[in-house]
Design brief:
It is a single chain. Helices cover 78% and strands 0% of the residues. It has helices spanning 2-18, 20-27, 40-66. Helix 1 crosses helix 2 and helix 1 runs antiparallel to helix 3. The longest helix is centred in the last third of the chain and has 27 residues, at 40-66.
């Protein structure tokens, strides 16, 4: 289960880090009627969170092989 969770975290984190606008469409766009694109602050924060989630995914995949 840790391996599958790691793969999911890796994929979600990569989407957040590489294409934060796609993540914005899935998670935040429905909350706002007036704004079509995310702010620069949102993009930066999403990329940082995505990088962290990628790191968590990689660590959980590596742990699967060593435990």
């Amino acid at each position: 289960m840790t391996f599958v969770g790691g793969i999911i975290c890796l994929l979600i984190g990569l989407i957040m880090a590489i294409k934060p606008d796609i993540w914005y469409e899935f998670s935040e766009q429905w909350k706002s009627d007036s704004i079509d694109s995310p702010s620069d602050f949102y993009v930066k924060c999403t990329r940082i969170k995505g990088a962290f989630i990628v790191l968590v995914g990689v660590v959980s995949i590596i742990i699967t092989f060593f435990i």
